[in-house]
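Priority: medium. Attachment 1 of 2:
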């Protein structure tokens, strides 16, 4: 990531945050206005020609709108909420983004710095609440106290949300920090690293597919583009592979296509469940093999599935 060479003219940190979002290519954000980030709302008003703030009636709806935008575009959906109940209402959309590998950034207004750790009105420790990790709700939770570093935090949030397995990030914004003037420049748009299998791995895949008698593809996860779904369809046709769609990705593969096998999720067709269990090769392209997609970890047993399994997934975990 690179920044502009020289600092910009002083402006409020809340306004700089909006400029940082615009620099990342964001033109629409969702949220419920709150007193803890008024400086940011003022920034949205100042830059209304470049970015729009869609005011929602409840933070849960705003979070789901941002999650849906992230899922549809492959770029982080943006949500702004105020502290306490605003954050807890938004947590359901955040958790959905985490489990569905959807890039999303939730900005939360926080109590002023001089009130922290005093149980101020609606004060919550969001690093504890949303604690990152395999069983958390976010890939990273950052709280910015130095206004000059705010563009850095925004850039890191975008990078983290899109890098590897996509997912949500939380940025906490102390109220007093947003009202301080800063000269820090915005940071260039984040670009996630792209990975590809080695030629040897592709050769092994071809050998395994050619030898398999009962192969099955399970497709899902985040990051799919129109070109990728089209390529998946051509791949399935070329190898005559049945394709099942993972939990909450039922429309990833054309349900009217002759190679469509069904929904590998809640209430799975018993015949499809038997097909998964009887497969001699499972090619899981993108999905997280969680409880719903594996029928409570019975269709694909952990840690050693009965079937040969090739799992293509962006997360190192």
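Attachment 2 of 2:
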């Amino acid at each position: 990531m690179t920044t502009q060479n020289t600092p910009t003219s002083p402006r409020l940190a809340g306004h700089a945050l909006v400029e940082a979002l615009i620099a990342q290519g964001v033109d629409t954000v969702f949220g419920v206005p709150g007193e803890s980030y008024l400086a940011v709302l003022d920034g949205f008003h100042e830059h209304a020609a470049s970015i729009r703030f869609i005011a929602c009636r409840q933070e849960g709806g705003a979070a789901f709108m941002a999650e849906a935008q992230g899922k549809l575009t492959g770029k982080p959906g943006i949500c702004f909420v105020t502290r306490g109940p605003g954050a807890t209402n938004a947590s359901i959309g955040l958790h959905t983004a985490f489990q569905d590998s959807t890039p999303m950034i939730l900005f939360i207004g926080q109590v002023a710095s001089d009130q922290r750790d005093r149980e101020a009105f609606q004060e919550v420790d969001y690093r504890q609440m949303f604690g990152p990790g395999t069983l958390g709700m976010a890939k990273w939770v950052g709280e910015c106290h130095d206004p000059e570093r705010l563009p850095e935090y925004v850039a890191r949030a975008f990078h983290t949300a899109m890098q590897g397995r996509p997912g949500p990030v939380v940025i906490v914004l102390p109220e007093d920090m947003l009202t301080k003037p800063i000269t820090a420049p915005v940071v260039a748009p984040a670009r996630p690293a792209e990975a590809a299998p080695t030629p040897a791995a592709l050769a092994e895949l071809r050998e395994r597919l050619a030898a398999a008698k009962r192969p099955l593809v399970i497709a899902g996860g985040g990051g799919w583009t129109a070109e990728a779904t089209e390529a998946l369809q051509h791949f399935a046709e070329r190898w005559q592979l049945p394709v099942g769609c993972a939990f909450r990705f039922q429309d990833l593969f054309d349900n009217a296509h002759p190679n469509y096998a069904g929904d590998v999720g809640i209430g799975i067709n018993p015949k499809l469940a038997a097909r998964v269990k009887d497969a001699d090769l499972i090619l899981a392209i993108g999905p997280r093999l969680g409880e719903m997609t594996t029928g409570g970890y019975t269709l694909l047993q952990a840690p050693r599935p009965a079937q040969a399994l090739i799992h293509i997934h962006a997360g190192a975990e």
